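Cross-check.
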Amino acid sequence: MNRLLLLVCFLLLFVGHANAQKINERFQVNIKKSTGQIKIDGVLNENAWLESAAVSDFVMCNPYDSLCAQVRTDVKIAYDDKYIYISAECFLKEPGAYVVESMKRDFAFGVNDNFLVFIDTFEDKTTGFAFGANAAGAQWDGQMSEGAKVNLNWDNKWESATTYKTDSWIFEAAIPFKSIRYKDNVKRWGINFSRYDLKAKEKSAWAPVPRQFPTASLAYAGVLVWDTPPPAPKKNISFIPYVLSGATANYESKSPTTFRNQIGGDIKVSINSGLNLDMTLNPDFSQVDVDRQQTNLDRFELFYPERRQFFIENSDLFDGFGTESIRPFFSRRIGIALNPKTGIYEQTPITYGARLSGKLNQDWRIGALNVQSERIDAKGIPTQNFSMVALQRKLFARSNFGVYMVNKQSFIDTELQKTNGFQSYNRDVGFEYNLASKDNFWTGSLFYANTISPLNKARDFSQAASLAYADNDWAFSIKEQWVGENYNPEVGYVPRVNYLEIQPEAAKIFYPKNKNTNLFYTTLKVMSVSFWNNQGAYTDNTTYVSYSGTMKDRSNFGVFLSYDFVKLQYNFDATRMGNTALLRGSEHDWYALNMRYSSSPIKAFTYLLTSRVGGYFGNGWRTGITGDIGYRFQPFGSVSVAVDYNDIQDVEIPGTEKMAAKKVSSQFWIVRPKIDITFSNKLFFATFFQLNQQTKNINLNARLQWRYKPASDLFLVYTDNYFPETFQIRNRSLVLKLNYWLNL
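Predicted model, tokenized:
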């Protein structure tokens, strides 16, 4: 094992010494200052557009990455003292034909005709900003990190408009310099333009990107050359106050209806060209999208992503450390408190918070966070303070090294808080090296973390290493991670402890030689994941072989054959429905077959079907079916119904001296109908109904959103929860919230 880690370390450092020269250096576009005012109306009749040269020679990214694009795209770019302007005329292969879901903001990339721009303002090939729209005018924006990731929960102030012709659609946008971060007195940014046309069955970009990578890959961005440096960044201040009124009725506890009238807000301060300070006072997140319910047949906690706007900007500086299953910082832990005595998470209102994040210079980034939550005397929950500091240094072409510390401080001052088992502090410190080669073919990481608390114990650390290679034809990776049984970052997400994991993976990608076929590519993949506990005992293995494919119309299919072995380290209710648990130390193994098919998003009627059949814990048998059916009323919305069904049969529960052996079974559903209506790209209505038999709850959430000005909204949110057996109401709430984005 030590030799494996040394080999991974050597390869990470060796590959990291790649030349930092820009791959697409020869792709350059000049930007000149506008000679007149530009009105954002989707009509390109201003002198600035007439005088600007168009970038038109887009290159196909898929299904092939060596051909010119079939559909033409003309892009122009200009600026003045306040805005950077971008326009794109997207010509159609068939007159009058385009495909969109709706006018909903931050749409799904793969099911909408769209135009996007990716801007690398520091030209570090790692961080940046993304803006764009679909053919119906729905805006799409996000903050970029790790070279290609776009966080669509980031939201900022900018304007756009879309118009239509017989043979094209036009996108026009004005992005305030105040809304982005960039370095002063430079004349180069990284930039790329991306076009996705479902009817033409192609994705294209101005600066070519190999088809195994997304067009968002900043490693392949071209160069935006300014005639003079853009306006010097100023210490901009944005104030975003809100007012809220709401009522909540809890019928389950028979409590009287409670009313609340609340004010609060956020302040965003641009400290310098790359550093931003976010502050919040008495925040409320009632308008945030509800989580999509998931079936949990695993032995561990499910993961739900952060959606609250305050925690989003430069979030990779905070939650980017670790791996998917070792997250030393998870912002969703802030605002809830785990009562150690009951094991129940309790909601705790946030009093205030502050985040300092961004670039100190071309090579250094910093993140600092401090959030205070309220005490709840009735439940014995103390006031808690959450803080984190992270420092990251760019290395080589696109790699980086970072260190961090997370601290959770509990101000315990009552006997009830002491007897509930709260610790006065919990800290996590660590470091991480992330590899990203110049051409993005090699990626990897090294990670180490340690927790510190009043109850320090042995094996309270974790570490991980990974190395991956991917090109047009092959993909290989090896991952390793070790988590001690006492590693416990209370502000993190670590669903499992006490294990060593080794995961090798290999995949071969096949592209058809006949270019007239409807098949885009197929992939054959083999993967094996093995676990040992800290004492060296072999505890888990999952091995599978899969064959999957994608068609040029973006329909896709997959077949998976898997083998599982588990030696339980804890008692486990395999039905997840309150039945008798299987005992610690018992061994289980089974085979299973999985199949999946997703229809083409080009058609108005779409569907997804996934099935699983095979063995299960306790010599049982599990049949699982997941379906998602939707219909699109382009461009005004969609209706859909998603269903998860699981049938678990004949799980053998061993007997004891007082109880005979038995077999148990369970069946449960998750049903999720949803209605999305977009009256315009400023007025949205969504209703989400979720029946979850596993958690024994029915949830109804309806939300009306009116974006009356850029980044300023009025929300009306209605929520109900019911018992599924009787449809008896549990609780109900209604909230009206108004916020306004004011640039000072």
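Helices lie at 2-16, 47-51, 316-319, 415-419. The chain has a mean pLDDT of 91. Passed to J.P. for a second look.
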